[in-house]
Amino acid sequence: QARLVESGVGLVQPGGPLRLSCTAVGFTISPYRMSWYRQAPGNDRELVAEITPSGGRTNYVDSVKDRFTISRDNVKNTMYLQMNSLEAEDTALYYCKAAQSRRPVYWGQGTQVTVSS
């Protein structure tokens, strides 16, 4: 069954780093725009970062610019989110998404990131 599998769940101290991975199983990500979303308790799900199929263009929500980096390795069928200088406000359930016109949309199951001392 085609799906996205996330890894990198963790408890991190404020100011620390964490890398999330999102691997596709049963389909190839190369034609897809890939994205990371997050949802904190009581909040709507928000787009954090996105990357074009070739990896040539990226986009970030203002609150994570200069701290987070989205990347992809189409050979490994995997997308990444490198998160640095983490803040308590980054605590959320993080989801990856694969979407492209005229193709099925895939979501990961979500992985918890908790930033706390």
Write the layout of secondary structure elements.
Elements: E1 3-7, E2 10-12, E3 18-25, E4 33-39, E5 46-51, E6 58-60, E7 68-73, E8 78-83, E9 92-99, E10 106-107, E11 111-115
Parallel strand pairs: 2-11
Antiparallel strand pairs: 1-3, 3-8, 4-5, 4-9, 5-6, 7-8, 9-10, 9-11
Number of helices: 0
**Overall pLDDT metric:** 95
Order of helices and strands: EEEEEEEEEEE
Flag low-confidence runs. Answer: none
Largest sheet: 7 strands, mixed
Question: How many distinct beta strands?
Answer: 11
What does this 3D model show about the protein?
The protein has 117 residues and is mainly beta. The chain is built from no helices and eleven strands. It has strands at 3-7, 10-12, 18-25, 33-39, 46-51, 58-60, 68-73, 78-83, 92-99, 106-107, 111-115. The strands form two sheets. Strands 2, 4, 5, 6, 9, 10 and 11 form a seven-stranded mixed sheet that branches. It has a four-stranded antiparallel sheet with strand order 1-3-8-7, with no helix packed on it. It is globular, with a radius of gyration of 14 Å. The mean pLDDT is 95.
Key features of this structure:
seven-stranded mixed sheet, globular, four-stranded antiparallel sheet, 50% strand, mainly beta, single chain
